[in-house]
Specification:
two-stranded antiparallel ribbon; ten-stranded mixed sheet; Rossmann fold; alpha/beta; 2 domains
């Protein structure tokens, strides 16, 4: 059994997060912990130095909506037979508390569209970057209109961070590893995949329908288009580390994928 965190802005409820864990429950049991942040928590949580021209405005709401969403979460869990906990009394520094929560969890599930819905910031991706980077377990970011994944896109650039992400996905979500998986390496150079023999030995043990694909393209120009054409896929990435092996799966690239809400993204980094 694993422990999964789902994090909500207390006023904006991510249905996608609950839909995802409901699909997971068909194959394996888990403890589901709902973490509810208020608008005040957001102002604390996003208390990073602002970029030039950046600003944050939290919108105030009646507490009744917050309470209603917590109650809905409890009702949903009980209806579906989930073992669950509710953490809605965070107070204080919500970011530090959330970091501690992730230290004792296997996976954090976050609705990438609803999480910043009522916080006005000029550079939201920078704050999402910080939150992802500070968590101490893998993160799954979900667009609200996602489809439960039918295939996997495993990004690989030869770095220890990309390999770490492949391992963490296999360990945390093994029930998805029987889906069709494309392990993608991109480079415009005439070179073999780094450590291809050892990569194949590992990946084939965990991903039953694996296809290793080297794309001889300029990733900045073409890869995003290739990715969009892979509908109903889930992207696995270690891009929020500090690899400089390849620009293909850099932090800026994955931020673009997340920002445009194209596909669910699983991120794990050391």
């Amino acid at each position: 059994m694993k422990k999964i965190l789902v994090v909500f802005d207390g006023y904006n409820f991510s249905s996608a997060s609950l839909d995802f864990v409901q699909n997971l429950s068909r194959n394996s049991p888990f403890l589901l912990t709902g973490v509810f942040l208020s608008s005040i928590d957001y102002k604390t949580m996003l208390g990073y130095p602002l970029a030039v021209g950046g600003y944050i405005t939290a919108i105030e709401y009646d507490n009744d909506l917050f309470v209603k969403n917590v109650a809905y979460f409890k009702e949903y869990c009980e209806k579906n037979g989930f073992e669950y906990r509710v953490h809605d009394d965070l107070g204080g520094d919500a970011l530090d508390i959330l970091k501690t929560e992730t230290r004792f969890a296997d996976l954090l599930v976050l609705g990438s569209e609803t999480f910043f819905k009522d916080v006005t910031i000029s550079t939201p991706s920078e704050y999402l970057d910080d939150i992802i980077r500070d968590t101490e377990c893998p993160v799954l970011l979900l667009p609200e209109d996602y489809k439960f994944p039918e295939k996997l896109v495993l990004t690989y650039d030869g770095s220890k961070n990309s390999m770490y992400a492949l391992k963490q996905f296999a360990y945390v979500l093994p029930e998805l590893c029987n889906k069709e998986a494309a392990l993608v390496y991109g480079s415009t150079k005439k070179e073999e995949l780094p450590n291809i023999d050892m990569l194949e030995e590992f990946a084939a043990r965990h991903y039953g329908k694996l296809n290793i694909l080297k794309l001889d393209i300029d990733p900045k120009v073409y890869f995003n288009t290739w990715l969009v054409n892979n509908k109903n896929a889930l992207v696995v990435s270690g891009a929020f580390g500090r690899s400089d092996v390849s620009m293909l799966f850099s932090k800026s690239f994955m931020t673009e994928v997340i920002k445009e809400h194209k596909l669910p993204v699983f991120i794990a980094h050391q």
